[in-house]
Amino acid sequence: MDINTYEMETVKTNTTIELEFTLNTSPSILFNRLSTPSGLAEWFADDVNLNGNVFSFIWDKVEHKAEVISKKENKFIRFRWLNNGLPPNKDTYFEFRINLDELTAGLSLFVTEVLDYDTDEDEVEDTTSLWEHQISELKRNLGV
């Protein structure tokens, strides 16, 4: 008699951070701040350049590149970090999504970042704090 044994496979899932912010501005003004080098340089990085669909973000004279993997005018833009010549992790990204409530005319900005599955709790907290700080800079820049 054969006894079949099965090994449990550990399924690793990525860590997702989802944040929502209310902003008193128009979708087109906000989308400009989220999707253009000049708009992003006002609040997100010290300097921002664009070559094709690859943004170069510069903080403290260090460059980090991200490619735009999807976008829809005045709705959302999704980026994937490029890892200095290494193949990008296809499962990770960060996204800005604009939601205009038709009933209340309120505008929400959803920030989603999908991190590697091995991201620890401290890094999740640091990333969340960084996004909250960055969006407060965006709000200050917009005057809201």
Low-confidence sequence ranges: none
- The count of strands amounts to 7
Helix fraction?
Answer: 25-40%
| Overall tally of domains | 1
Q: How far apart, in Å, are the first and last alpha carbons?
A: 73 Å
Number of helices: 3
Topology:
Layout: E1 15-23, H1 27-35, H2 37-41, E2 47-51, E3 54-59, E4 62-72, E5 76-82, E6 93-100, E7 107-115, H3 121-142
Antiparallel strand pairs: 1-7, 2-3, 3-4, 4-5, 5-6, 6-7
List the main descriptive attributes of the protein structure presented here:
144 residues; alpha+beta; seven-stranded antiparallel sheet
Provide a descriptive summary of the structure in words.
The protein has 144 residues and is an alpha+beta fold. The chain has a single domain (15-142), classed as Alpha-D-Glucose-1,6-Bisphosphate, Chain A, domain 4 (2-Layer Sandwich), CATH 3.30.530.20. Helices cover 25% and strands 38% of the residues. It contains three helices and seven strands, in the order βααββββββα. It has helices at residues 27-35, 37-41, 121-142, and strands at 15-23, 47-51, 54-59, 62-72, 76-82, 93-100, 107-115. It has a seven-stranded antiparallel β-sheet. The longest helix is centred in the last third of the chain and has 22 residues, at 121-142. It is globular and about 45 Å long.
